[in-house]
């Protein structure tokens, strides 16, 4: 379905019955990245997946992180979902964390996969914004095929090269289906350098929080270990034989941990 929010149109899928679970994908992905997770969760939950600004079938003007969170709150409330279990991967994890900070009464629990609270210092944010701007311009000037070739080669996704060929093809097809203007906007407005840092707010999060990381993803293992020490009600799980995209590289184990966590809530 499509939900109108002011000047934006969000693509939203809803399947299953039961307590509400929201799935938020990462950069260059869409709701399709959650197919395996959705198939399992919809047996016991109402699963709501959203194409984030700049991605998939969602069409928006420029959207900052805060504006995106406001839109999601409107979507959920307009569909009469008053308290949800929120699951976000990477960029979607940053959205989920930002959403939980701004609308804590709408979040029953929080699951963050390979996510971060942003960057601590103004210098770090400036440097990251400059880097993201350079990438955004490259996407606009050289096109989606050139960008995807570059994106697949970065160390963050090196462990994906061990996936079965059909999975690699599906991931690549999802990336290639994106629009240059959408990805460039996402980097500029919702990139890690653009979002407000939440490091100094983590101690205020009261909802149960599950942090999932892959053992090969050293940077995010370090970030999430520190997050787990700061968020009062957080648990961290490091998934063996996985990198940044745990839900794709180890879907069965990912789903098992999600189900166990949600069952406790």
Task: Quickly count the helices.
Answer: 10
| Number of domains as seen in the coordinates | 1
Beta percentage is 15-25%
- The helical percent reads 40-55%
Class in CATH? Alpha Beta
Major sheet summary line: 8 strands, mixed
The CATH superfamily bears the name Alpha/Beta hydrolase fold, catalytic domain
Summarize model confidence as the mean pLDDT.
Answer: 96
Topology:
Blueprint: E1 2-5, E2 8-15, E3 20-24, H1 35-41, E4 46-50, H2 65-78, E5 84-89, H3 91-102, E6 107-113, H4 122-142, H5 144-151, H6 165-176, H7 180-190, E7 209-214, H8 218-230, E8 234-239, H9 246-249, H10 251-264
Parallel strand pairs: 3-4, 3-5, 5-6, 6-7, 7-8
Antiparallel strand pairs: 1-2, 2-4
Helix pairs in contact: 1-10, 2-3, 4-5, 4-7
Task: Put the structure in a nutshell.
The chain has helices at residues 35-41, 65-78, 91-102, 122-142, 144-151, 165-176, 180-190, 218-230, 246-249, 251-264, and strands spanning 2-5, 8-15, 20-24, 46-50, 84-89, 107-113, 209-214, 234-239. By secondary structure, it is an alpha/beta fold. The longest helix is centred in the middle third of the chain and has 21 residues, at 122-142.
């Amino acid at each position: 379905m499509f939900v109108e929010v002011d000047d934006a149109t969000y693509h939203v899928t809803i399947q299953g019955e039961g307590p509400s679970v929201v799935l938020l994908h990462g950069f260059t992905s869409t709701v399709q990245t959650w197919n395996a997770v959705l198939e399992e969760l919809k047996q016991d939950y109402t699963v709501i997946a959203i194409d984030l600004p700049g991605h998939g079938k969602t069409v928006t003007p420029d959207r900052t992180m805060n504006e995106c969170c406001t839109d999601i709150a409107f979507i959920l409330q307009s569909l009469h979902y008053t308290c949800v279990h929120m699951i976000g991967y990477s960029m979607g994890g940053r959205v989920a964390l930002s959403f939980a900070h701004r609308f804590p009464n709408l979040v029953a629990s929080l699951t963050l996969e390979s996510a971060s609270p942003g960057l601590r210092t103004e210098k770090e944010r400036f440097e990251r914004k400059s880097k993201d701007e350079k990438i955004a311009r490259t996407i606009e000037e050289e096109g989606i095929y050139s960008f995807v070739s570059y994106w697949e080669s970065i160390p963050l996704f090196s462990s994906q090269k061990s996936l079965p060929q059909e999975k690699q093809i599906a991931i690549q097809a999802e990336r290639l289906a994106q629009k240059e203007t959408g990805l460039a906007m996402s980097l500029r407005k919702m990139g890690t350098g653009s979002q407000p840092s939440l490091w100094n707010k983590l101690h205020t999060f009261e909802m149960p929080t599950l942090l999932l990381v892959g053992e090969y993803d050293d940077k995010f293992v370090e970030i999430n270990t520190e997050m787990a020490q700061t968020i009062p009600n957080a648990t961290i799980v490091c998934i063996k034989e996985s990198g940044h995209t745990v839900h794709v590289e180890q879907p069965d184990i990912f789903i098992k941990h999600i189900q166990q966590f949600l069952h406790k809530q």
